[in-house]
Amino acid sequence: MDWCKSIRFISTNSVDIRAVKRLVLMSALTVALSACGDRKTAPRTLDVATTTSVQNSGLLEALLPHFTDSTVRVHAAGSGRALEMLKDGVVDLVISHAPDTEARYLADHPGWVYQKLAFNRFVLIGPPGDPAHVKDAKGVLEAFRRVAAAPVNFVSRGDNSGTHEREQNLWKLAGVRPAAGRLLTSGQGMANTLRQADEKQAYTLSDEATFWQLQRQLELLVLSEGDDRLLNTYAVVHPRDSPTATSFAEWLTRGEGRRRIDSHLIEGRVAFHVWPDRCPAARPDALPCS
After folding, report:
1. Over 50: is that where the pLDDT of 234 sits?
2. Which pTM does this prediction carry?
3. Per-residue three-class SS string for the chain
4. What CATH number does the domain containing 266 carry?
């Protein structure tokens, strides 16, 4: 039985002890009501799967201390794996950057809510000597063709992540791939892939935010950037019937989280540009408008 509901006033016929009883009773009642009034539901834990590029960039460390509606538990994974975790009910919300994969999952889950969150760019990274002469290429497709034609290595994420999805699309559009033995697979997140490429003096594709975060530890340089095919968009995905996930998504896309994303700097540069309010944002193929 809830003792907060069991408090009863006790009367007495003894005039001599009435004042003492009243003092004792009032003290007990005050403590009891205070305890009952302070009862609160413990903050719910919100499980979020996020692409490793968001994790490696330091963005979540800057954001999460300011979200107090629930306790957020982060699971870093490639976008494909993150969306699979959402499908299986392992997580409540996903931050991903793999438009093709997102579109496939959304087609199978009409109850999910999709909202573009931010964007930045992919960059093609390589050794300072640039043996494939990528820096002289006109556009990223020519850069990829030069990597494929040269006796150099390319380190692929190979993990069904958003970066891996874009790399695969670029090889397909370029119409070539490196010879067997020169296309290496890390099977790991962006930070470890960059370290592996640095160790082997190889080329790789990276989101710019993770590269900026680690560039002081690496010899690798940005050798191809700015092509429209290197646009990198991030989205929030969650079930429509999850109030806790909805609260976090709205905080990120419309609330204080949005402002903090736009103010997150790496080496003095804006790491993620928030999605413009005036631009369509509810489809994986949506683009930031000018």
Report:
1. yes
2. 0.84
3. CCHHHCCCCCCCCCCCCHHHHHHHHHHHHHHHHHHHHCCCCCCCEEEEEECHHHHHCCHHHHHHHHCCCCEEEEEECCHHHHHHHHHCCCCCEEEECCHHHHHHHHHHCCCEEEEEEEEEEEEEEECCCCCCCHHHCCCHHHHHHHHHHCCCCEEECCCCCHHHHHHHHHHHHHCCCCCCCCEEECCCCHHHHHHHHHHHCCEEEEEHHHHHHHHHHCCCEEEECCCHHHEEEEEEEEECCCHHHHHHHHHHHCCHHHHHHHCCEECCEECCEECCCCCCCCCCCCCCCC
4. 3.40.190.10
